[in-house]
Design a protein that fits this description.
Layout: E1 9-14, H1 37-49, E2 54-57, H2 67-72, H3 81-89, E3 96-102, H4 108-121, E4 126-131, H5 148-166, E5 194-195, E6 200-201, E7 216-219, H6 224-233, E8 236-239, H7 244-260, E9 269-278, H8 282-295, H9 298-308, H10 337-350, H11 354-360, E10 367-371, H12 373-386, E11 391-395, H13 400-416, H14 429-433
Parallel strand pairs: 1-2, 1-11, 2-3, 3-4, 4-7, 7-8, 8-9, 9-10, 9-11
Antiparallel strand pairs: 5-6
Helix pairs in contact: 1-13, 3-4, 4-5, 5-6, 6-7, 12-13
């Protein structure tokens, strides 16, 4: 029986807009980082040197036309992750590269082809964050956003089509026999010929099978439908949990769901999001956080949170030190159901003032951890040992200082405790995460 300590998985959430929140106003923030590739390259190289497992890039397909919010924050433009991560693949060697691609406003064939190509370009380091869109129907020939239930029904079928296309070719299908003139063993080609409620896709895919079999599948939905999709297809599960108890409950449930579907629970890695602010002392860390908060416009932020969670009232119109009213007993939204529930539960559990809620939600509803390398490592170790996480999706604002603080402070402390590796274990993202290669469903060895 192994006595080795469990190892923490570290992913990095990097805003595809380059920077988030008020960080763009910080004196140390580079101007134009949102469109400067060297900004992303520096981040990737710094976190690869720190032996992070993966970079994760979010995405959206629309611009919310709140003019005050647009005037005050970097939310109007962003990189397409499927353009950005191939470029980063050419300047890194080991770190995984995970891009968000919505199943709501894309087509399976295009997504299967792009991720297969990126997996080859990166040497097997690609990951797909499989999510539905929170908005954007107006940009795709629709009058309104697709309903939540319909989005997830489409997502389930979307995954079936994409994974089926990745199995178009068995691993040894391309014999390339120069003497006989045989390029392809056509018996090892498989035409999908899918006919479903949302898609009709014949195939086969005109791209080589991914190096990893399938790119690593990340999933970030925590609604009931999102958890069902995560349990079925997800391998890296991103989630927002505020307490160890909440983390343990989510971790246990998602792995039990996977077992019920016949999956090995070790093949799902749960990574709660956490925004860290690191200082040599607690006071220094708090001062760094307070400085960022001072730069954030409360009115536009609180109005955006109220709208995003369908709160039913506008937080920005309330006195800053007034206790937040209880949200409605019956609630629903067609955007981010799990984030709505998280915010409503937080209000009911803690009865915060508007100011306190403002300070808790500036990482998009994820947990904010302010401290020294030692106290942050203590927290990570507690979550790991309690069975609340396999690791963390560390949310960086985009400031280079915050990334360096974590890479040069927290990572060495985790390594000193034997909780984080000193070197990459393999070449592919799957190898470095301890996930298996995905065999082709049509191959004899997979039957």
């Amino acid at each position: 029986m192994s006595t080795a300590k469990p190892q923490i998985i570290l992913g990095a959430f990097i805003p595809s807009a380059g920077i988030m929140g008020s960080a763009w106003r910080h004196p140390q923030a580079a101007v134009d980082s949102f469109k400067d590739f060297s900004h992303y390259r520096w981040i990737a190289e710094t976190l690869e040197k720190a032996r992070f497992h993966a970079l994760f890039f979010n995405d959206s397909l629309n611009v919310e036309l709140d003019l005050q919010a647009l005037a005050r924050g970097p939310n109007s433009v962003r990189w397409d992750p499927l353009v950005l991560i191939p470029a980063l693949a050419l300047v890194t060697q080991r770190i995984g590269l995970i891009g968000t691609a919505s199943t709501t406003y894309n087509e399976p064939y295009n997504i299967a082809r792009k991720f297969a190509s990126i997996d080859h370009l990166s040497g097997g380091r690609a990951g797909w964050n499989l999510v539905t869109s929170l908005g954007g129907g107006e940009n795709f020939n629709l009058d309104a956003h697709v309903q939540h239930a319909d989005r997830y029904q489409r997502a389930e079928e979307f995954y079936d089509v994409v994974s089926g296309l990745w199995d178009s070719w068995e691993d040894d299908a391309f014999v390339q026999d120069k003497v006989s003139g045989t390029w392809l063993d056509t018996d090892k080609m498989h035409v999908l010929d899918h006919h479903g409620s949302s898609f009709q896709v014949k195939g086969p895919l005109n791209a080589a099978r991914p190096i990893q079999g399938y790119p690593v599948i990340a999933q970030a939905g925590s609604s009931d439908a999102g958890r069902a999709l995560a349990a079925r297809a997800g391998e890296l599960i991103f989630t927002a949990q505020h307490t160890v108890e909440q983390g343990v409950a989510f971790y246990t449930e998602i792995k039990q769901r996977a077992v019920q579907l016949g999956r090995n629970p070790e093949h799902l890695k749960v990574l709660p999001g956490v925004s860290t602010v690191v200082g040599h002392t607690q006071a220094e860390a708090q001062a760094k956080y307070d400085r960022l908060q001072e730069l954030l416009d409360p009115t536009s932020f609180l109005r955006a949170i109220s709208r995003f969670t369908s709160l039913g009232f506008d937080l920005s119109e309330l006195p800053f030190d007034e206790v937040v009213p209880l949200p409605p007993e019956t609630f629903d939204t067609n955007t981010h159901k799990s984030r709505q529930k998280l915010v409503f539960d937080l209000i009911r559990r803690e009865r915060p003032t508007v100011r306190q809620l403002f300070n808790k939600l500036t990482a998009g509803g994820h947990r904010i951890l302010i401290g020294t390398p030692q106290s942050i490592a203590d927290d990570f170790q507690q979550w790991l040992e309690a069975g609340a996480a396999d690791g963390f999706n560390v949310m960086f604002s985009g400031l280079h200082e915050g990334i360096s603080d974590f890479a040069e402070g927290v990572v060495p402390e985790l390594q000193r405790r034997g909780l984080f590796r000193h070197e990459y274990q393999g070449q592919t993202l799957r190898e470095n995460l301890g996930l298996p290669y995905i065999a082709n469903r049509h191959a004899a060895s997979a039957r």
